[in-house]
Design brief:
This protein is an all-alpha fold and 414 residues long. Helices cover 78% and strands 0% of the residues. It contains 18 helices and no strands. Helix 6 runs antiparallel to helix 8 and helix 11 packs across helix 17.
Length: 414
């Protein structure tokens, strides 16, 4: 209880000079709009890659540098920039990245060459890590008993932003030209920034560590904090399942069902079903704790892979499995992120960095494993590489969930 009282006092102090009282409804909406607008900046390209190749007369292997550098930039920003949120005012960092992101969108819209577009996409990825700063700030402002719901709401905006980018990017590119999508994105970011400038509070630095020591503390935190170890391990393993499915979906649909990119793209709609459960998962985390929510998330992902076993026979199985998987993954992510950002108030940004690196690492590892399995054994190999009840991966997840539950219970008992 004393820890919660301390956090409430800190939240009140954070709002001073920010024009609000804690995480009010208006600020929650503005932060959600912010992550919605920033999420799309590295996903608009997904349906526009072929158009890049046509405009710049480039081969697909050259065009692939655009998404590779944008996602690489996001990973670099999450690892090397997000920890600064514990060292400096988070408000300052958010607006610095927001400025850089607007400039990157303008540069992509005006890019004269594919190389210039790719370079700007890397800067966009770096600055798009602003979403991780927003999560840490939200966790800092939210009352302890409402942190899960607040993070669930914020992540809902993030997931909707990704879906919006994938669906709208192709439409705008077809109707207005791909450059206009980046112009529109820059305008959205500016529109989101204006009200935030008056409502976003300052969040004082939590540590005075120099940068080298700040980065070194990431390893120490992962080595000493059980909650961070277990939450990161669970999300890494679930990320393997997620990354493996999406990396092999297109060749599977083409080979087994004879459909093209347009139909494959439609799988993104049920594949974003996690948007519907993120807020509920956050509220349930506040009421029931992390363990039950993460357990249900894992069971949903396991059920998804059972359904994927029928995907070679029925296209509907792909959509149903994608929906189950996304719901499970997002529910677990909301609960785990609420846990790690609530355990150590002095290191919320760094906790988020460790967690985000594991999420992206799992996605990349899953893509590699599943692509290899596809080449060797086809779709059955991909399904077999997923979670099974008695597999080493499932046993590792089980133990991680139990440990995370103990850490959550200890946090609530303090």
């Amino acid at each position: 209880m004393r820890e919660h009282d301390d956090e409430n006092r800190v939240a009140g102090a954070v709002t001073q000079g920010g024009g609000g009282a804690g995480l009010g409804r208006a600020l929650m909406i503005l932060l959600t709009v912010l992550v919605f607008a920033t999420a799309g900046t590295i996903h608009f390209q997904t349906p526009m890659l072929a158009e890049f190749g046509r405009v710049f007369a480039a081969e697909p292997v050259a065009v692939a540098w655009v998404p590779a550098l944008s996602f690489g930039g996001f990973l670099a920003g999450s690892l090397f920039l997000v920890p600064l949120g514990d060292r400096f005012d988070k408000r300052t960092i958010v607006f610095a990245k927001l400025t850089g992101l607007v400039c990157a969108m303008a540069a992509m819209a005006a890019a004269p060459t594919l190389a210039a577009l790719a370079a700007a996409s890397f800067v966009a990825g770096l600055c798009a890590s602003i979403s991780q700063d927003a999560i840490a700030l939200t966790a800092e402002l939210a009352a302890p008993g409402e942190r899960g719901a607040a993070i669930g709401t914020l992540l809902s905006g993030l997931f909707v932003g990704i879906l919006f980018a994938r669906l709208v990017g192709g439409f705008v590119a077809a109707e207005l030209g791909w450059r206009w999508m980046y112009v529109i994105s820059a305008a959205m970011l500016v529109a989101a920034a204006a009200p935030l400038a008056t409502r976003m509070p300052h969040a004082p630095a939590r540590t005075q560590l120099p940068y080298a020591a700040l980065m070194g503390s990431l390893v120490r935190m992962l080595r000493t904090r059980a909650d961070l170890q277990q939450a990161s391990a669970v999300q890494f393993l679930l990320g393997i399942c997620y990354g493996g499915f999406w990396a092999t979906l297109a060749p599977m649909m083409t080979t087994l069902h004879g459909v093209g990119p347009a139909a494959v793209g439609l799988v993104g709609v049920p594949g974003a079903a996690g948007v519907l459960v993120a807020r509920a998962a956050g509220r349930w985390t506040d009421r029931r704790g992390v363990g039950p929510v993460v357990t249900i998330g894992i069971l949903l992902v396991m059920a998804a892979y059972v359904v994927f076993g029928l995907a070679g026979l029925f296209v509907a199985a792909v959509a149903i499995g994608a929906a189950l998987q996304d719901c499970g993954l997002r529910a677990a992510m909301v609960a785990n992120q609420a846990l790690i950002t609530g355990t150590d108030p002095e290191a919320r940004s760094r906790s988020n960095t460790v967690f985000a690196v594991h999420v992206w690492g799992g996605n990349a590892t899953g893509a590699l494993i599943a692509s290899t399995a596809w080449a060797v054994a086809g779709w059955s190999g991909v399904v077999a590489s997923g979670p099974r009840r008695r597999s080493p991966r499932s046993r590792c997840i089980d133990s991680s969930v139990r440990a995370a539950g103990r850490a959550d219970a200890l946090q609530h008992a303090r």
